[in-house]
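Recall the central idea of this unit: under ordinary conditions, the amino acid sequence of a chain determines the structure it adopts. In this exercise we apply that idea directly, starting from the sequence alone.
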Amino acid sequence: MSGIVNLQDTPGRTAGKRVPPDDSFQTGMDLQQLAVDLGRTLKQGLVPKGVYRFTSHQEADQWMWKMMARPRED
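Accordingly, the structure predicted from this sequence is:
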């Protein structure tokens, strides 16, 4: 298997019903702006900064939901 990708070729198949955006760069920039706007609106990050270690993905998911649902710090 070759590690070279030809960017001029379009993918042969798309899984599901997803339609690729007309301008993927602009779509990415819009998503980034949304993240910035949400951060400014919530006035706190999604999770506190730091390194976190979990014993399972389930434990990490529970912690993430707890962090997302926590009250906002004013």
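The helical segments are 24-42, 57-69.
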